Amino acid sequence: MEYFSTNRKSPVVSFRQAVLNGQPPDKGLYFPRQIPSIDVENVCNKSPSEIAYEVIRPFVGGTIADEALFQICEQTVNFEFPLVKITDNTFVLELFHGATLAFKDVGARFMSRCLQHFSQQNAEKTIVIVATSGDTGGAVAAGFLGVENVEVVILYPSGKVSNVQELQLTTLGQNITALKVLGTFDDCQMMAKTALADEEIKQQVFITSANSINIARWLPQQFYYFFALQQWPENLPPVVSVPSGNFGNICAGLLAQASNLPIKKFIAATNANDVVPLFLKSGEMLTKSSIATLSNAMDVANPSNFARILELFGGNLDKLNRQMSAVSVSDETTAQTMREVYQKYNYILDPHGAVGFYALQQYLHQNPHDKGFFLATAHPVKFDSVKEILGTSGETPRAIEELLTRPGQSVEIKADYNDLKEILLSKI
Ligand SMILES: *Cc1c(COP(=O)(O)O)cnc(C)c1O
To answer: Which of 298, 300, 329, 357 has the most ligand 1 atoms within 8 A of CB, as the residue to mutate?
Structure first.
């Protein structure tokens, strides 16, 4: 499999090179040249590791030997992905049973192991830079902790991640440096992108990104949808609601659908950061700043992965509108949904899941013959707001209890690339 840049001004590369580059030199996004066609019935009869292996293998295109790839897959999906029924027509795919209690654990684990595999071949020091709106950083840090020859630098917006999220970034130490940026997530993302394109740094060290723009983070997210279909008890294909911020997860779902996975329709569930819902209505992509909301991991104003969605549909908006709708859900509705679902069904939603639940309910209300599931992208205990809204965030997992006793360590910097550059140069 080869990958081209969505900006079409960079050379076509292999999976290995695309993972190592992170982003193409023209600052587009890597996109696979072909969409594999998968024998879904056959694949869905297998174990999670086998499903992961079958789904990802064509994308890896032989750049990792089969045996090593299978091992990476086993280590990537070594936790549960249960599909739980909430109402007659609504199920939830719980993606929060991994190391840092968020769905990003899958992509982060897969990518860290791919990079480790490739770096064994070129024994060079690697800097992995990642901007996080909440969950990415912890998942990436946990995925890379103690990996030799790799320095991980995490940028997160000061005051905009939860207490637990911040501790997941700042308590690891070793090869993990957490930078608290006095700015927004978009500032963090911009600074990371600038570093990745900085020739002076690139001459001295191998630098790559672990954001969802890296194909090794993005592509494994397809697995969730196969795991869900494996457990889907209904006859008709499901409608799938995906809480979306940078749109990597939903784009992976659309890719799985394009490879034959039977999904009726996708709903992109966003918070007040609504450029995509507005775009689907008007065809115009507005430039906005990100707004802080209860679902902070989705506070993204310019979703990078939307370029991949457009690519998948060849820029045809009618086609896209048939496969995907988008809804913006306010904080007020999010909190109200959390209260209602807890009272009626005794199910604790985190704010991201609540956005997904509400968007799905709205759709099913208008389409009463359909059924669907939404993704619960993180555990409720990760968000301080859940306790404030519901009075409880359920049972605290042991790993989190332990985390709360540890002191965090971070370096505060301005939203200024020069501050970041100084720190990066000190790591070389
Ligand atoms: C990252 C994240 C999202 C958004 O996923 P994208 O792929 O960026 O759209 C949703 N919920 C949680 C909890 C997240 O961490």
So the answer is: 298
Asked if residue 382 has its Cβ within 6 Å of ligand 1, the reply is no
Q: Where are the alpha helices (DSSP H) in 94-134?
A: 104-122
Ligand 1, atom 2: nearest CA belongs to which residue? 297
CB distance 244 to ligand 1 below 6 Å? yes
Rounded to two decimals, the pTM is 0.91
Q: Are 266 and 254 in contact (CB under 8 A)?
A: yes
With a cut of 80, say whether residue 203 has pLDDT above it.
yes
Give the nearest ligand 1 atom to 134 CA: 15
Region of 90 (left: φ > 0; alpha: ψ -120 to 50; beta: rest) is beta
DSSP codes, 53-76: HHHHHHHHTTSS-HHHHHHHHHHH
Query: At 154, which helix (H) or strand (E)?
Result: strand 150-157
Whether the CA torsion 65, 70, 75, 80 is positive or negative: it is positive
Instruction: Give the pLDDT band (50/70/90) at residue 122.
Output: low
Phi-psi region of 94 (alpha: psi -120 to 50; beta: other; left: phi over 0): beta
CA 244 – ligand 1 centroid, Å: 6
> Is residue 134 scored above 80 in pLDDT?
no
| Three-state secondary-structure class, residue 206 | strand
Residue whose Cα lies nearest atom 8 of ligand 1: it is: 246
34: helix, strand or coil? coil
Ligand 1 atom with least separation from CA of 243? 10
Is pLDDT of 120 > 80?
A: no
